[in-house]
Amino acid sequence: MREMARIETEKMSKLLQVYFIMGSNNCKRDPLQVMKEALDGGITLFQFREKGEGALTGEERVRFAKQLQSLCKEYDVPFIVNDDVELAIELDADGVHVGQDDEGITSVREKMGDKIVGVSAHTIEEARFAIANGTDYLGVGPIFPTSTKKDTKAVQGTKGLRHFREAGITVPIVGIGGITVENAASVIEAGADGVSVISAISLADSPYESTKKMAGLY
């Protein structure tokens, strides 16, 4: 077993700057082309989220994940898997992100060892529990209304982020939900280390330009 240490806070914070989340069904053109443009534009972290209507399943899903993972490796961008701890282990992914309704943080951390683990948190209590049990970062939101995820909680606005920081939550935070090139700066100003986006890149006329603009905010 390799001796590993958990990611340092400062490094995690930088990785969250432009956090792209995508599945094949989030794109209107070839997802691999979208991914390449996003990587060229400067995404700092990637999350594979293949779920919802028209999502790939079984072997096709695994094959697609591997294609995206190998692109990430070319650009030295960590590859995170949404929810599916088993798939993350099978692919030897760089980490996993779980929501409140997915597998609990304690068993996820146990299975993932020192790899990156992120947790979605909607309340200070959820955040504190995740931190106490080994999360490396928090996904906080939805900041703005979003059409990508159907099961979202109440919109928090940027004041939701401020609320987390004022409550003494110091771990890296990425803002989630309805974030666009136009409103991304307000999310960072409110205390987030970075922004996570789906459609702002995946449905952009130019994923490259859209990514570049967000990367230019830092």
List keywords for this structure.
globular; eight-stranded parallel β-barrel; 8 strands; alpha/beta; 218 residues; 41% helix; TIM Barrel
Account of the 3D structure:
- With 218 residues, the protein is α/β, with parallel strands linked by helices.
- It has a single domain, classed as Aldolase class I (TIM Barrel, Alpha-Beta Barrel).
- Helices cover 41% and strands 16% of the residues.
- It is built from ten helices and eight strands.
- The protein has helices at residues 9-15, 31-41, 58-75, 85-91, 105-112, 124-132, 157-166, 184-189, 199-202, 207-215, and strands spanning 18-22, 45-48, 79-82, 95-98, 116-121, 137-140, 173-176, 194-197.
- Strand 7, helix 8 and strand 8 (194-197) form a beta-alpha-beta unit.
- Helix 2 (31-41) packs parallel to helix 3 (58-75) and helix 2 packs parallel to helix 10 (207-215).
- The longest helix is centred in the N-terminal third of the chain and has 18 residues, at 58-75.
- The mean pLDDT is 96.
What is the CA-atom radius of gyration, in angstroms?
Answer: 16 Å
Q: Looking across the biggest beta sheet, what order are the strands in?
A: 1-2-3-4-5-6-7-8
The CATH C-level class name: Alpha Beta
Number of domains: 1
Estimate the helix proportion, in percent: 40-55%
Structural class: alpha/beta
> What is the 3D shape?
globular
Assembly form of the protein: single chain
Largest β sheet strand count, sense and barrel closure: 8 strands, parallel, barrel
The portion of residues forming beta strands comes to 15-25%
What CATH calls the topology is TIM Barrel
**CATH H-tier superfamily:** Aldolase class I
Distance between the termini: 37 Å
The ordered H/E elements are HEHEHEHEHEHEHEHEHH
Number of helices: 10
> Which spans have pLDDT < 50 for at least 5 consecutive residues?
none
CATH architecture identity: Alpha-Beta Barrel
Number of strands: 8
Query: What number is the mean pLDDT?
Result: 96
Enzyme class: transferase
Family: Belongs to the thiamine-phosphate synthase family.
GO molecular function: magnesium ion binding; thiamine-phosphate diphosphorylase activity
Organism: Bacillus cereus
